[in-house]
TrEMBL record:
InterPro entries: DBL_dom_sf, DH_dom, Ephexin-like. The keyword Ribonucleoprotein does not apply. The gene is Ngef. It comes from the Eukaryota. The lineage of its organism: Eukaryota, Metazoa, Chordata, Craniata, Vertebrata. Keywords: Guanine-nucleotide releasing factor. It holds the Pfam family RhoGEF. SMART domains: RhoGEF (SM00325). This is NGEF protein. Residues 25-67 are annotated as: Disordered. It comes from Neodrepanis coruscans. Residues 102-286 form the DH domain.
Amino acid sequence: FSCNLSDLLCSLLGLLYQEYRDKSTREEIETRRLQDSQTDPEETSPSEETPSEAEPTNTTENKAPPQISLLRNSNSRFNLWQDLPEIRSSGVLSILQPDEIKLQEAMFELVTSEASYYKSLNLLVSHFMENERLKKILHPSEAHILFSNVLDVMAVSERFLLDLEQRVEENIVISDVCDIVYQHTISHFSVYITYVSNQTYQERTYKQLLQDKPAFREVISQLELDPKCKGLSFSSFLILPFQRITRLKLLVQNILKKVEEKSDRESTALDAHKELETVVKACNEGVRKMSRTEQMISIQKKLEFKIK
């Protein structure tokens, strides 16, 4: 029995520090982002929501596509692809079939929601994680468990968003986004498994800090009152990555319902959905493993106490 407990403890340590082994992935992403910024200075600061890409016609294929700057305009509030001024002025709405417009909206929602998610992650890091008062209160190990590998998650989201932005700026009608989802899921989304697997310890640490450190509780309350948080709690920001990976799966499902059968877009949507489902399952399994490990550690502590 003690041997099994030791194995579980080793497994726990391996999971808790798994994010460090993802460092090379993050460095690769950052290198790609830096290369992009050197070739296209404007591509370094995505902010909100997105445009789309066009199926060229004989009259427009040789023209430069309209630049839809929704991602970079933090004041934009367009929720629908067809409401974009660039789309309305192009006349494309009178050409596309209703089913294609619905598909455009589904793909547009995936991109704009990623932009919104990235902004929220950035707020979690800049407003909470990097707050100087909070840094002084938290022990490095507490901060590590509390924020886990959120910097890796944000770097992955940024790279993903840049690629989506590049795609939608190629033309005013979006050709596809699920091929990009697929590539990023298989190459970079393992950071979500690491983050979500640590959720059990993240929640426990947060509750303990609220209970044991009044200074922590006070600073968090003050930070939550900032208008930038829009009334959201600190814990609602911490859970963002888990919510995002599950929502991405639903967004791809929505696209899958609207693509034409036996088309290339259906094939890429199926591939993307399959890989996202694998990541979501791995996240859920990671949470279960960590929860079981925590229970075993708790039992071990009780046994040791009784023996003493």
